[in-house]
């Protein structure tokens, strides 16, 4: 790889042990993927924040990096943790889990990383522009940034995103390059999508079909919430980091020999039936990816009309939670049996240790991960369905 003088000095250890280690990792990745150089990035988003997902080994690695003097050099922020930092006791999080979770967060903070704890940084002011190079690690945020915002990021791992934050660069390959941002799957949508949940179900279906190819949709006009849910589900059921919607996304680049998939009314019905256990949930979890203020308002309006038949969480970013509290939505949610939860989500929370067995979700992403990561049966459906079974 062709490195700049500054990058070579980092690799040679002239900028300290931590930057040397980080640059060694980035250079190795660059060689693996055939990158000719590094590209400066404006921000980094680090995954691997919950103790549930990284365990003791990850915690010790982060503490070692912090002790070695690692500091980020660009705006760097964190994916959700395994609990709400302020109200973990109210959530029922085990104390032993909380202690180790706080150690992980302390290590990140010592490295100068922002305590954002959200999978939707684009909803709290971190919104890169079209063509802007970034190094993000959360799968749903990657899909949103590449597709809806037109920014450029590969599917970074937690360690590589951290290294990019420390060094301010990432290898120049993959989705950073124009020629690699071409869709090879055309999706003709014939189903009538009536709810946000329908977009999550379609994403679940198309993600399985597309794998790691990039789909291009026609026949739909989703809003930003629906784009978020669509991309998140495809990133979870497949490995989709980029998608296009004709007339909606800033880019629409499709290969001439792209294969075509039709998403029919029957596909929608069968997908929802396959995901949904049909059972009454012990807990309903909403906000995957993290809920926007508009989504929280809608949930508050729904539960205010009729109290749900089980407890529920609405997961969101801390900044959004504070705004929701100011507007009175948090009070309405609490009065009707729910908790407005910040900093975490159902997928990286230790649900199985907390006694839950059946979890309700309106998100295709949550429906994909809850069985494997949390040992949960899934009650999948629209908000009005799963809250009142």
Helix-strand layout with pairing:
Blueprint: H1 5-11, H2 17-32, E1 38-40, E2 44-46, H3 51-67, E3 76-78, H4 88-91, H5 95-110, E4 135-136, H6 139-149, H7 158-167, E5 169-171, E6 183-189, H8 196-210, E7 215-218, H9 224-237, E8 244-245, E9 254-263, H10 265-275, E10 283-286, H11 293-305, E11 311-316, H12 318-326, H13 329-335, E12 338-342, E13 358-361, H14 364-374, E14 377-380, H15 383-386
Parallel strand pairs: 2-3, 2-4, 6-7, 6-9, 7-8, 10-11, 10-13, 11-12, 13-14
Antiparallel strand pairs: 1-5
Number of helices: 15
Q: Which residue ranges are poorly predicted, with pLDDT under 50 across at least 5 consecutive positions?
A: none
Classify the beta-strand content into a percent band: 15-25%
- Alpha-carbon distance between the two ends: 58 Å
| Structural domains: how many | 3
Write down the CATH topology of the largest domain.
Answer: Aconitase, domain 3
* CATH architecture verdict of the largest domain: 2-Layer Sandwich
Strands in their spatial order, largest beta sheet: 12-11-10-13-14
Largest beta sheet, briefly? 5 strands, parallel
Radius of gyration: 21 Å
Please trace the helix and strand order, writing H or E for each element. HHEEHEHHEHHEEHEHEEHEHEHHEEHEH
Q: How would the global form be characterised?
A: globular
Helix content: 40-55%
Give me the secondary-structure category.
Answer: alpha/beta
Number of strands: 14
What are the salient characteristics of this protein?
15% strand; alpha/beta; Aconitase, domain 3; 14 strands; 3 domains; 15 helices; 389 residues; five-stranded parallel β-sheet
